[in-house]
Amino acid sequence: MSQVFSTRLARLQNLVHSQGDELLIVQGFENISYLTGFSGHAATLLVMPQKAMMITDYRYYQRALSETQDIEVVQRDRDNESLGACIVRLSGANLRIGFEAAHFSVAQWQGIASELNAVSLTPRTDMVESLRRVKDEYEIDCIRRAAAIADSALAQTLTQIKTGITERELAIELDYQMQLHGSTGTSFDTILLFAERSALPHGNPGDKQLLEGDFILIDFGAVVNGYRSDMTRSYVWGQPSAEQQAIFDTVQNAQRAALDAVRPGISAHELNAKAHEVLQASPFGQYAGEGLGHGLGLFLHEIPFLKPGEQYRLQAGNVITIEPGIYIPHLGGVRLEEDIVVTAEGYDCLTRAPQQFILGG
């Protein structure tokens, strides 16, 4: 893996140089992990065209030494040296500095910037994220393993469903099953909703009890080596009404239309439109969710985003979600979500749980 991290870091160093910066301050935890292999949560990475250094403190210093190679690790005494002063000590003054604008609070950056004495301080966005957009084999394998854990956990959890169980009880069971099967925590707070509450795209599980004929929406993910899966399944408990079945069929057809169009070179806008056309041609078009999906990796939501107007063209190695949905207030919602990796021939689906609609009954 050391060569993988060296290659990633070299790509960023070339990008820093091309931007005209002499130093890029990387603060995002996931970005530092991607570039170095460090798994801690308290570090700052200084990336210069010819070298890189990591600043951490006594809590993570030995861990950083053991997890990283070919990079200088510096232990900062937090009580006696500010982060800004440490950056100046290690890199020098009067530099053209870029910084990850999305990963600093205003207060944090104001404190650091006041000490840097730089020629220029330029906010940079998506520099590391743009490199992360195309996944290597290690990353794809981690997401595949996370998706397999989620598949197994869901299968076990579905056996526990019964009339009267609450959203919260079932969500706790699913989270437990994911960790029992090897997930390090959860990809995000599990969304598990019944009946009319399933129309909330990102609602929190509550005390609502499951009744015959209710929609069930489950959106969840597992984590392997920091890489996340993200899958949604929708069900009905018992026999569906004709309207419920029509909603599910519409969403499933929209997802299939998008999946059939996945290939390198198609734009995110075009792919979104494939699902949008199916949804808008149905009686439920006004209740369709916005956007089709997103990139997936160390972040739950990464570039590229599959939405109207997004001109990014898919490349082999992109890992994305395909997740059309219909959300009707006071009735309920249906979303189906798969994680896929774009290949030279089309795509490979990483999530494998069946898309059955009817449970029980």
Automatic annotation (TrEMBL):
Q: Where is the Creatinase N-terminal domain?
A: 8-134
UniProt domain Peptidase M24: residue ranges = 141-344
Pfam families assigned to the protein according to its UniProt record, in alphabetical order: Creatinase_N, Peptidase_M24
> Can you name this protein?
Xaa-Pro peptidase family protein
